[in-house]
Specification:
227 residues, 7-stranded antiparallel β-sheet, 31% strand
């Protein structure tokens, strides 16, 4: 029985809990009209809503709250080098003390540094990244202050809920014969797990029972994205 269950779990005290989520490059607009592009991975989606966990005083958070919008660019595993060039850079000047302590530096031209190409958007003023296979325009719905019961973290974290207003996808990740469906066998997102980059396995592990539900059944009747 022990061999079936695996070894007994032991109590640990990890500094972070980044078990593995897709990398998101958030495009936003600085107060002088220039573009900002910031990698993050604390993101999850339900329907056409997304929750973003961000440092309360980051440039991206500042831009999103001021402008009420952003673009969520999802890089593929093939773009890992471009994403890594943005690591430990910030659009904030001066660099916040917490980031300075971890070796961050100010960088004004994030697109130039990464080698990615800024594109205009349809429903927001924030930039898309042309090379990212998925680009989602979004508007801020709510800003939730996190860890209000923790004297150490209070005021330092925010969970920003955004509503997606438009989705762009490269044709080569689309499902054949289904113009609105991304093919999970073709989509290879860049994954961050405990600060290291990973990709998905080349093929699905097994048939999924949830995968038998037509994707269109998740769309509420008569629903359209609000601009």
């Amino acid at each position: 029985m022990h061999g079936t269950l695996g070894p007994a779990a032991v109590q640990i005290d990890p500094a972070i809990l980044y078990f593995g989520t897709p990398v998101v490059l958030i495009g936003s607009t600085n107060d002088d009209g220039s573009h900002n592009l910031a990698p993050m991975s604390s993101a999850w989606w339900v329907g056409w809503r997304c929750m973003l966990g961000l440092a309360r005083h980051s440039k991206t958070t500042e831009n999103m709250i001021r402008t009420g919008e952003c673009v969520l660019n999802l890089p593929s595993a093939a773009l890992v080098a471009a994403v890594d060039r943005l690591a430990r850079t910030t659009g904030s000047n001066p660099v916040p003390s917490g980031k300075l302590h971890r070796g961050y530096r100010h960088e004004k031209d994030k697109f130039g540094l990464s080698g990615l190409t800024a594109l205009g958007s349809d429903t927001v003023n924030a930039p898309r990244a042309a090379e990212c296979p998925v680009q989602m325009e979004a508007k801020v719905a709510y800003v939730h202050e996190m860890a209000q019961d923790d004297p150490v973290w209070r005021g330092h974290l925010a969970a920003i809920e955004v509503r997606i207003t438009r989705v762009h996808a490269h044709p080569d990740i689309m499902m054949s014969g289904a113009p609105n469906r991304i093919d999970p066998d073709k989509w290879r997102p860049l994954i961050l797990s405990f600060q290291e980059f990973y990709g998905l396995t080349p093929r699905r592990l097994q048939r999924s029972e949830l995968g038998q539900i037509p994707e269109a059944m998740y769309r509420p009747p008569g629903w359209q994205p609000a601009l």
